[in-house]
Amino acid sequence: MRKFGVLVAAALTALLLSSCSSTPTEPETQIPDKPAVEAPVVNAADYSDGYGGYIFRVGGGSVWCTINETPSFVLCEHRDVDVVYEIPAAPASCEGAWGYQAKLWAYQPSEGLVADWFCSSGLFSDPENAYDLPSGSKIVVGDITCFAAEMVARCDNASGQYLALGSEVYGFGN
């Protein structure tokens, strides 16, 4: 009987200790859904940088994205100090920053994935003068649609592939 009591105590202790340790949540569990068809669409011209790009901020500026018409892609980024998720390992070929910029092409590029991290050597665009994309609204430029979901930007191409980026979440749908 004493051995049974020791086993029960050991099992309870193990259970309690395992509940105290926190297992990191996969960032993709917090990715916003594709925006509803009826989500309000902003006037893309209001977000034009005058050079063929359209820049917007999400979450008061914690994330910003630039949609380019030619070639057709979107690059979303945020400051490295805002990141709370675990940065994925950079490939050996990347000698810049990794895990802060994500790129989605409107089509399959000649190399790499449609949606993936982007090896960066600095900011792609300056978010300081960019307009906020109101939460719940979307911007459409060519085959790229981006949606603001609170503190996360989600961008989809016409084929249904996507990227999502926020300081606490990221995800790619290839």
Name the features:
single chain, 174 residues, mainly beta, six-stranded mixed β-sheet, five-stranded antiparallel β-sheet, 1 helix, 11 strands, 11% helix, 29% strand, disordered N terminus
The total beta strand count reads 11
| Widest β-sheet, arrangement of strands | 5-4-3-2-1-6
**Residue fraction in strands:** 25-35%
Distance N to C terminus = 57 Å
Count of domain modules: 1
Count of helices? 1
Characterization of the model:
- This protein has 174 residues and is mainly beta.
- The chain has one domain.
- Helices cover 11% and strands 29% of the residues.
- The chain is globular, with a radius of gyration of 20 Å.
- The termini are far apart.
The gist of it:
This protein has one helix at 2-20; strands at 53-58, 63-68, 73-77, 101-105, 115-117, 131-132, 138-141, 144-149, 152-157, 162-165, 170-173. It is mostly beta strands and 174 residues long.
Which helices and strands, and how do they pair?
Layout: H1 2-20, E1 53-58, E2 63-68, E3 73-77, E4 101-105, E5 115-117, E6 131-132, E7 138-141, E8 144-149, E9 152-157, E10 162-165, E11 170-173
Parallel strand pairs: 1-6
Antiparallel strand pairs: 1-2, 2-3, 3-4, 4-5, 7-8, 8-9, 9-10, 10-11
